[in-house]
Design brief:
Layout (H helix, E strand, L loop, with lengths): L1 H11 L50 H12 L14 E3 L9 H9 L5 E3 L12 E3 L3 H9 L3 H4 L5 E5 L1 H4 L3 H6 L8 E4 L23 E5 L5 E4 L2 E4 L3 H9 L5 E3 L2 H23 L7 H7 L1 H19 L7 H12 L12 H5 L7 H14 L33
Parallel strand pairs: 1-2, 1-3, 3-4, 4-5, 8-9
Antiparallel strand pairs: 5-8, 6-7
Helix pairs in contact: 9-10, 9-11, 9-14, 10-12
The structure holds 2-acetamido-2-deoxy-beta-D-glucopyranose.
2-acetamido-2-deoxy-beta-D-glucopyranose (NAG) binds next to helix 4.
Keywords: Signal
């Protein structure tokens, strides 16, 4: 059901035209098995054969796309074929101070045969995903700086969102016409351990953060906080994670986007509501003691998303986010970092009055966000509501 709705939705979305053009895959319009060899990134890996659904998703909005969609339905498959994981390129920041744990995590989840490069270094020959792990605060410049060689490979880029490290990158990608159905994107639902967290000074292996939160009315398992991927390389991402015991849901862009904004809501609300407290607060405590505030702020931002970006979150988001905080939020500190202000907090359309009241409070009373341009609010928040265990106050009735 989900898939059909997703496909139908894709047909009405038209790809942005700004930015540069992408090479469109040469063979399309029908489904067939192709085998070819890809000159590999690593010498131990020379020939890859795989089947691929050749579906020119870059052109979903025109007549050709509709024919392709009909062909696709005629195959009787409910999902697109998946690209497998393979030796890949991981792009890290060239500034050692801005290398984030995402770079290590993606490398650690691979088979040790990925190539880690800095922007605009020569790319290996072959067909592989290019994982972009530069932090969001360098992403705009990274894209502006792209050499022609790299621009020609833009359809192989994989971008990340979600968590304190990845935040929201949609506004940046949109400015370059890179928010499109074929673009590979991942909402991160696994841990990003810092260097030194594991044995021998290396980072620990990333672990799944997804949690099973029971079953729905149809007996289907419900999950919160799971990794989700979309776009050309979504299968490669999913197989890389799956091999490491990390759930990854592959979805179409439109649904992925709703999941991404759900995660964005969590990253903003939980960190702000907790960071303004007198005592150090973790995500579990926000869910337990500051539930009303978190809920009110969420709904404010949700309304802004609906009005400003036409994003309607997936039913049950409030239950999922609270459950996620309750199951995974213990010991996860509520933090506000200046570098991430424009990528976690300043990303929601609409007035966001409550969010900005809290951010101003954090700035004036807590000495946080000193380098951030927090929008002024009509009236300052002089006092925060006191912690209360509200119980059963959520609209969904979950205690
Ligand atoms: C963009 O290019 C400039 C000039 O070469 C360089 O100094 C800067 O580090 C680059 N930025 C990124 C994010 O790669």
């Amino acid at each position: 059901m989900r898939t059909l709705l997703g496909i139908a939705a894709l047909m009405v979305s038209s790809p942005p035209t700004a930015g540069f053009h992408y090479p469109v895959s040469s063979a399309r319009g029908n489904t067939r098995q192709r085998t070819f060899s890809a000159q590999s990134v690593a010498s131990s890996y020379s020939t890859v054969s795989f089947s691929r659904m050749v579906l020119g998703m870059a052109t979903w909005s025109n007549g050709q796309a509709i024919r392709e969609y009909q062909d696709f339905l005629a195959t009787g498959k409910s999902e697109l074929d998946k690209e497998d994981d393979r030796p890949s390129v991981i792009v890290r920041s060239s500034n050692p101070a801005s290398i984030t744990p995402l770079t290590d995590a993606i490398f650690a989840l691979g088979n040790g045969d990925d190539v880690v490069v800095t922007p605009n270094e020569a790319l290996p020959v072959g067909k592989y995903p290019i994982y972009i792990t530069v932090p969001p605060y360098e992403l705009r410049e990274f894209i502006q700086n792209l050499s022609d060689e790299w621009k020609a490979r833009a359809e192989d880029f994989v971008f990340f969102s979600g968590t304190k490290f990845c935040g929201v990158v949609e506004p940046i990608l949109r400015d370059f016409g890179m928010c499109r159905d074929t673009m590979s994107q991942v909402v991160v639902g696994f841990t990003l351990p810092p260097p030194g967290s594991g044995l021998g000074g290396v980072a620990r292996m990333p672990e799944d953060m997804a949690c099973n939160i029971g079953t729905d009315a149809y007996g289907e398992e419900k999950w919160a906080g799971e990794t989700q991927s979309c776009g050309k390389w979504n299968g490669a991402v999913a197989s890389r994670l799956d091999r490491n015991g990390i759930r990854c849901k592959s979805t179409f862009y439109r649904e992925w986007r709703r999941a991404m904004w759900e995660r964005a809501l969590y990253d903003a609300v939980w960190n702000v509501v907790g960071a303004v407290r007198e005592d150090e607060t973790d995500h579990l405590q926000v869910a337990t003691y500051f539930e009303m505030e978190a809920s009110d702020m969420m709904w404010e931002l949700v309304n802004g998303l609906r009005g400003g970006l036409a994003v309607t979150l997936i039913y049950g988001f409030e239950d999922r986010l609270f459950s996620f905080a309750e199951m995974r939020g213990k010991g996860e500190p509520c933090e506000l970092r200046d570098e991430m202000f424009d990528h976690i907090l300043n990303v929601f359309p609409g007035k966001s009055r409550m969010l900005w009241e809290y951010c101003n409070y954090a700035k004036d009373k807590k000495g946080l966000l000193q380098r951030s341009n927090v929008p002024p609010v009509p009236s300052e928040l002089s006092e925060l509501p006191s912690p209360t265990r509200q119980g059963n106050m959520r609209a969904d009735g979950v205690i």
